[in-house]
Amino acid sequence: MMVLITYDVNTTTEAGRKRLRLVAKQCVNYGQRVQNSVFECLVDPAQFAQLRHRLEEIIDQEKDSLRYYYLGSNWKNRVEHVGAKSTFDPEGTLIV
Amino acid sequence: MMVLITYDVNTTTEAGRKRLRLVAKQCVNYGQRVQNSVFECLVDPAQFAQLRHRLEEIIDQEKDSLRYYYLGSNWKNRVEHVGAKSTFDPEGTLIV
User: Binding residues for Mg(2+), per the UniProt record (chains A, B) (predicted)?
Assistant: First the structure.
């Protein structure tokens, strides 16, 4: 299943940028970083359970938020992109 | 229909922050700012055509990107939130 994950984090702090790097690192195991803090992950239920467990350990739940959108099987018809197409290097310095 | 709009913009610049404010201002006419640059908009096709036209005029298409996710009618079952629940003031200073 396709799960869209959006991560809201304060990237003006080094700690926030680090959490974003860690979240990205987990998400790109299962999919694609389509925007700086938006990930499209193709997972089965067991993988998703594992992924979200990891993500929820990484984030600061007092400050950050994660949203999961279950896009279903017909997800390719549900997505449209406008503007710059960036390629993000999950290991590199992030541009925020 | 529910359209999820994610906006990728460099908010380290004043110009980027301004574009985000303008995008947010348009989106909140139709829905909710659920994260700093993630909006859930309930629109009919005509409203959506108008909204996206405005957004695509605001953004810098060389630098920024917008993604539209058509969540369909069953969208409430497709969304899950973890962590901080922020209320964003679209007119105020944005926390990035």
Answer: 8
